[in-house]
Specification:
The complex is a heterodimer.
Chain A lengths: L1 H13 L2 H19 L3 H30 L1 H9 L4 H31 L3 H27 L3 H29 L6 H9 L2 H13 L1 H4 L2 H11 L1 H28 L3
Helix pairs in contact in A: 1-5, 2-3, 2-5, 3-5, 3-6, 3-7, 3-9, 5-6, 5-12, 6-7, 6-9, 6-12, 9-11, 9-12, 11-12
Chain B lengths: L1 H15 L3 E4 L2 H10 L4 E5 L3 E3 L3 E3 L3 E5 L4 E3 L7 E3 L5 E3 L2 E3 L10 E6 L5 E3 L2 E3 L3 E6 L5 E3 L2 E3 L12 E4 L5 E3 L2 E3 L5 E4 L5 E3 L2 E3 L6 E4 L5 E3 L2 E3 L4 E8 L2 E3 L2 E3 L7 E9 L2 E3 L2 E3 L3 E6 L5 E3 L2 E3 L3 E5 L4 E6 L2 E3 L3 E4 L6 E5 L2 E2 L22 H8 L10 H12 L28
Parallel strand pairs in B: 1-2, 2-5, 3-6, 4-7, 5-8, 6-9, 7-10, 8-11, 9-12, 10-13, 11-14, 12-15, 13-16, 14-17, 15-18, 16-19, 17-20, 18-21, 19-22, 20-23, 21-24, 22-25, 23-26, 24-27, 25-28, 26-29, 27-30, 28-31, 29-32, 30-33, 31-34, 32-35, 33-36, 34-37, 35-38, 36-39
The chains are: A mainly alpha, B mainly beta.
Chain lengths: 255, 414
Amino acid sequence: MQKTIKYVVYDIIRNRFVMGYTLLLLLLSVSFFWFEADPNKGLLSLLNIILMVIPLVSVIFSTIHFYNSYEFIELLSAQPMSRRTIYFSQFLGLCFSLGMAFLIGVGLPTLIFDGSMRGLTLVSGGLLITLTFVAIAFLASVITKDKAKAIGVALAVWFYLCILYDGMVLMVLVNMADYPMEKASLVFSALNPMDLARILVLMQLDVSALMGITGAVFQNFFSSTWGVFISFVLLLLWVITPVFFGYRIFSKKDL
Amino acid sequence: MKTLFTFCLFILSFEAFSYNWPVKTVQELQKALFESKTNDTILVAKGNYKVLNLEITKPLVIIGQNQPVLDAQFKGEIFIVKSNDVSISGFKFLNVGETSMIDWAGVKILESENVKVFKNEFINCYFGVYLSASNKCLIENNRIIGTPKEEQTTGNGIHAWKCDSINIFNNYIEGHRDGIYFEFVTNSLIKNNLSTKNIRYGLHFMFSHYDTYTHNIFKKNGAGVAVMYTKHVTMKDNFFDSNWGGSAYGILLKDISDSDIEHNLFNSNTVGVYMEGCSRLKMQENVFRKNGVGLRIQANCDENNIHHNNFMANTFDIATNGSVTFNYLNDNYWDKYEGYDLNHDGKGDILYRPVSLFSTLIERMPQAMILLRSFTATLLDKIEKIIPSLTPENLKDDSPSMKPNAIKAFNFKV
């Protein structure tokens, strides 16, 4: 399995896209921290990147990569190797390359310019978001037969989680404004990895504004060690669940 | 000649000659207080004195040498001043008890003038210095440190009721209910004090007209600073820092009118300034930095003039609860402003509406806070900027500054 992961990583590095992506992230993060006098604002700008760009790149690159190495997967399937090894080496290889790209591009400058708890939360949240969207891309790739459809599905999921979901939450809140929605909104945020990561970071940054009536519920939950632990477990579940279902399908799939 | 000399001696012995009373024990102190004449000096030597309810009924100078300790053992209060021209300095007041009937204090000043309390320390006192119906008093260089319990069972650091022309300088107040409390106090000056970690307000005043507050620091108080029902107040060069919590405000202004709030720094407060029922205030050259909400103007405020302030790194610059307001915003710097300046006069060419749609939304549905800084919230704000429909139409800055306004550096000394 290690050997296959190595080949997958080599393959990804050779096509230079990940290199460019790393450099772009590095450039963006460094410039955010340099141009904003206040590291707080740098972190907030980075948060926007993490919430929009990184999921998009992760999900599209992973889908394309999966289909580009389709022949390689077919070749591997002809070898005495289990489907599990093939699937997970592909997945882990991608996770490793995109994760490293994120850690070098965003993690390194963040920890240099603001190595506090909030910087750490931002980086770990962003890393889990990257992995989540790689996982979603894999699921999208195995449930479809052709590349265009897979990209379509992946993009739809991205669109849903990044834009539609919040709009729907807002709609629910507007319509249910007469009811106590504090606990419900806590649940809403847990059902979307992006919201979860965003609120985790915000709790480190914008605490003051969030400390209103609803804020108190959130503050209690997300600022306690228990709450942070649960949020990270939920984020991890967002990685594990799609990968697992993807594997279930892939192991029975007629390649 | 001889007659004149005798006359002078007579005058001296009668009027100007004051006697020194050195005191080493509690009995001596009580005796000195009882037997001394007007304008005598009582010198209290270093030591530990267990005292209770000492009344001062004539003008005296009472000096603690090397900080003697006056301990009330939680049974009552220490000095009760009922005379003009008393001066108390150099003591350490300890353990003033707490009651719900009487406000026991380290030094209580009742209906007196020209009383000076300076260079003392108050530890574990229910009330530190308590002034009632007294004028022209000076409270200076004291350290007042309490052990806070609950709001009902904790007194104020410096408490003044119905006073005029008092000066409060260079005090350090910690761990009381309100650091400095004023009610019906007029023409007074509060300067260079540091009020911190009080369980309610760092400074609290009501019906206290024509007072001036400068160069004070109010830091990490339970609910910040609250000032109410007052006109003609001047607040300058103060620092409101880290007043954090569900109902904490840098400064809460309720029914304040005709006042100046100038060159203050509001840093990391839940709400920098909260204005309710305020009229004709002038707010200028203040810096709002890293607050949850920089300035909250409720809809019942009018004719307030807010100009040349800098709003930087606040989550929300301005919040309000109504749709129509009659306040004037001019020449402020907003770090969220995205306009341009074609003629290079330093003022943005398009007006700036500091109330975002998202903050209006939160006003109606606090739960929507979970969408803070999400793409959806940003999108809504952008749409609202182009076609304003929900945000208050006339709460706007017509000439926002392109660069932070030049505000002279803050220099806090305590």
